[in-house]
């Protein structure tokens, strides 16, 4: 964090505290967007540093000084993403992945879990074979192969993405957008 002399025409402290900051891992992978207070805590305790490539810096005033917090900061410690594990295949996690939506008809009511390849036909209880289905679709599909039902899946089921990877994809997509405009 840089310490500089106060400059004129700064936005109010309260407005500044509404901003958020993107945290990068030690390996420069964008991890998450956090509020500026959290960013200040990480910077002050030495757990993160400002990234020089940042274009924006927000002034944070203490009684005697103005600190500048950049819009991108980088963790100085080891990667927190190592702690993440693929969640277990259960109702709560599958519904969360599928955004609480039946993967056949789009209904958001009376949701159950469906094995795409039925268990009786050797289907496994794994992320690529379990989807959210409403009771109507689940009943209609029954114990049949999907191709025998005329029903289709909205998306190919797969394990949830690492949150940092998901965030990184979104972050870079946004960067591309801002380059185009
Ligand atoms: Zn349905």
Largest sheet: 4 strands, mixed
Q: Provide the gyration radius in Å.
A: 23 Å
Question: How many beta strands in the DSSP annotation?
Answer: 9
Mean pLDDT over the full residue set = 83
* Poorly predicted ranges: none
Shape verdict: elongated
Name the beta content range. Answer: 15-25%
Helix content: 10-25%
Unique bound compounds: zinc ion
Sequence of secondary-structure elements: EHEEHEEEEHEEHH
What report would you give on this structure?
This protein is α+β, with helices and mostly antiparallel strands and 181 residues long. Helices cover 25% and strands 23% of the residues. The strands form three sheets. Strands 3-2-7-4 form a four-stranded mixed β-sheet. Strand 2 and strand 3 form a beta hairpin. The two termini are 30 Å apart. The chain binds zinc ion. The site of zinc ion has 8 residues, from strand 9 and helix 4.
Keywords:
181 residues, alpha+beta, four-stranded mixed beta sheet, three-stranded antiparallel beta sheet, binds zinc ion
In short:
With 181 residues, this protein is of the alpha+beta class. It has five helices and nine strands, in the order E-H-E-E-H-E-E-E-E-H-E-E-H-H. The model has no long low-confidence stretch (mean pLDDT 83).
Task: Annotate the secondary structure layout.
Blueprint: E1 2-4, H1 13-16, E2 20-24, E3 30-35, H2 36-44, E4 48-50, E5 57-61, E6 66-70, E7 72-75, H3 91-97, E8 111-115, E9 130-134, H4 135-141, H5 163-180
Parallel strand pairs: 2-7
Antiparallel strand pairs: 1-6, 2-3, 4-7, 5-6, 8-9
The protein binds zinc ion.
The site of zinc ion has 8 residues, from strand 9 and helix 4.
């Amino acid at each position: 964090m840089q310490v500089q002399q106060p400059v004129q025409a700064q936005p109010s402290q309260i407005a500044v505290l509404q901003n958020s900051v993107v945290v990068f891992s030690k390996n420069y992978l964008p991890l998450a967007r956090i509020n500026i207070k959290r960013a200040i805590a990480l910077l002050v305790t030495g757990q993160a540093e400002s990234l020089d490539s940042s274009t924006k810096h927000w002034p944070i005033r203490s009684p005697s000084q103005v600190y500048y917090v950049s819009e991108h900061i980088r963790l100085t410690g080891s990667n927190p993403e190592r702690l993440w594990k693929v969640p277990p295949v259960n109702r709560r996690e599958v519904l969360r992945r599928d955004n609480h939506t039946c993967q056949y008809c789009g209904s958001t009511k009376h949701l159950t879990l469906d094995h795409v390849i039925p268990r009786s036909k050797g289907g496994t209880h794994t992320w690529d074979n379990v989807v959210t289905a409403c009771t109507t679709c689940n009943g209609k599909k029954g114990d049949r192969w999907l191709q025998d039902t005329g029903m289709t899946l909205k998306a190919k089921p797969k394990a949830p993405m690492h949150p940092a990877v998901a965030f990184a994809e979104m972050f870079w997509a946004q960067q591309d957008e801002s380059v185009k405009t």
